[in-house]
Design a protein that fits this description.
Heat Shock Protein 90; 21% strand; 5-stranded antiparallel sheet; binds adenosine-5'-diphosphate; alpha+beta
């Protein structure tokens, strides 16, 4: 065993050479790298430091003489091997804090370091090239995929406009839904690969901020109404009429957050709030808050949310679909716009996603003073009352008047959808009914499950039977 004196540092396997010596110049410790590079096997300890650095250290009396500026600075020296061949090294030699008679020398082989950094550069270039090839490939493939999906969708739409029997209509509606999902996935993959390859550029231009919000609202309002959810959008009057930013991408972020809020909320409401939080010259920071009263997210899963391809768990992807790319894309877009995105959520209570972005403001545009509170609709539940939270709790609790009321409302909407052969929407209401009966006695839960299966199969008779049975319980 190598004798280490009183030193016991975890540097044995360090990549740089580590040598310790005392005021007599005697080496008391050398790590494996030092022994290997200097080609000493066991006999490096006990040598004089001038054997290694003869140009810098000279034997003098009982110690050594040197001009070396001990301390934090890096110095280039020449190190000598046992066979007296030499190589340049970058060194730092310090005295030990508690013991000024002990010296620690850390040295790196300069040629090897240069060789390594050339190799790293080469690997970096190769990786960049591979990423470029990959993103070009993804761009080509997704483009090629779009054409056949468009073809299928166009034809299906044409067929759907004609006379059809129930079974055929249901199958075609399903194909159309699949096409829409495919479009979303293709767009997400394309954006994701561009962002990953650093090839994504924002296209800022002046746009009417409130018109943009109206457009976002219009994208979702039908589904929100169908689900019987409340929706509120509040815009601070301090935000000017026109701002300069990438409208398309802001819409994309809001659409994604709103679709998620809608997807994961069966009862209650969705709230959108936009504030101006800072201004520096002609740039303003906008702060968006999108909150829902949906299924919420476990604290342990929150960190995973913004990673690519991440969904909270496999059962979520089975039940609600999606690729897990949406929030990662949102995060990257928000960061490109100089902001941050965050989430705050409580399981079974709801989630709040908030993000900030910086936009420009047009010179001519003054501040708007109009009333910016835009309540769109409230369903049967009074979302604005003081006991709002309590009411929401009661809606979830099986057997409460609020729960029964909500069940009745969803059941009648469900049966209406079935009558109109809109099985997709019926499934949506069924999901709400399933959640509202989660705490119900087993026989009711079984009926609810049978109703769900009947809807999935498009079996009209069984749906009616299940509906009647559930109605009776209410
Ligand atoms: P996807 O396209 O699969 O929905 P996202 O990145 O948009 O991907 O979302 C990832 C996951 O985050 C979702 O699958 C879901 O588990 C969770 N999540 C996102 N938004 C919400 C929300 N408002 N409420 C509950 N869970 C959510």
């Amino acid at each position: 065993m190598e004798q280490r004196g009183e030193h016991n540092f975890p540097v044995d396997d360090a990549l740089e050479m580590v040598i310790m010596f005392d005021s007599a110049g005697k080496i008391s410790y050398a790590n494996e790298t030092a022994k290997k590079k200097l080609e000493y096997k066991r006999d490096l300890c006990g040598r004089h430091i001038s054997d290694i650095f003869p140009n810098t250290f000279r034997v003098s009396g009982k110690g050594f003489e040197t001009d070396y500026p001990f301390g934090n600075s890096q110095q280039n020296l020449v190190a000598y091997r046992k066979n007296r061949t030499c190589f340049p090294v970058e060194t730092r030699i310090e005295t030990e804090k508690d013991n000024p008679d002990k010296y620690i020398c850390m040295a790196n082989d300069i040629l090897e370091k240069e060789h390594l950094s050339r190799e790293v550069e080469q690997v970096r270039k190769e990786a960049q090239q591979a990423l470029k090839v990959k993103s070009e490939f993804v761009a080509n493939v997704t483009h090629e995929l779009r054409t056949p999906v468009n073809g299928v969708q166009g034809n299906v739409r044409e067929l759907l406009s004609g006379e059809l029997d129930h079974g055929t209509r249901k199958s075609l509606q399903l194909i159309e839904r699949c096409c829409e999902d495919m479009h979303k996935i293709i767009n997400n993959i394309l954006d994701f690969s561009k962002l990953e390859a650093g090839k994504f550029t924002l296209e800022p231009r002046e746009f009417h901020f409130r018109n943009m919000l109206d457009y976002v609202k219009a994208n979702h309002i039908n589904k929100i109404t169908e689900k019987g959810l409340g929706f509120f959008m509040t815009v601070s009057p301090q935000i000017p009429e026109c701002v300069i930013g990438d409208e398309l991408r802001i819409v994309q972020i809001l659409n994604n957050l709103l679709s998620n809020a809608l997807k994961f909320t069966s009862f209650g409401k969705i709230n959108v709030q936009i504030l101006k939080t800072a201004q520096v010259n002609d740039r303003i920071e906008l702060f968006f808050i999108v909150s829902d009263t949906g299924i919420g997210i476990d604290p342990a899963d929150r960190d995973k949310l913004f990673q690519s391809f991440s969904q909270v768990d496999a059962s979520i992807s089975r039940k609600y679909g999606g690729t897990g790319l949406g929030l990662n894309i949102c995060k990257q877009l928000v960061e490109l716009m100089g902001g941050r995105i965050e989430v705050d959520s409580e399981k079974n209570k709801g989630s709040t996603f908030s993000f900030s972005i910086w936009t420009g403001i047009s010179k001519e545009d003054g501040m708007t003073q109009k009333n910016d509170i835009l309540p769109v609709m409230t369903s049967g539940i009074d979302q604005t009352s003081d006991g709002e939270d309590e009411k929401m709790e009661n809606v979830r609790k099986y057997g409460t008047p609020e729960n029964k009321e909500s069940l009745k409302r969803n059941l009648s909407k469900l049966i209406l959808c079935v009558e109109m052969e809109n099985w997709e929407k019926a499934e949506m209401f069924m999901e709400t009914i399933r959640q509202l009966t989660e705490e119900a006695p087993p026989e009711i839960k079984r009926t609810s499950l049978r109703l769900k299966m009947a809807i999935q199969k498009g079996n009209y008779d069984k749906v009616t039977a299940g509906y009647n049975e559930l109605e009776q319980y209410l």
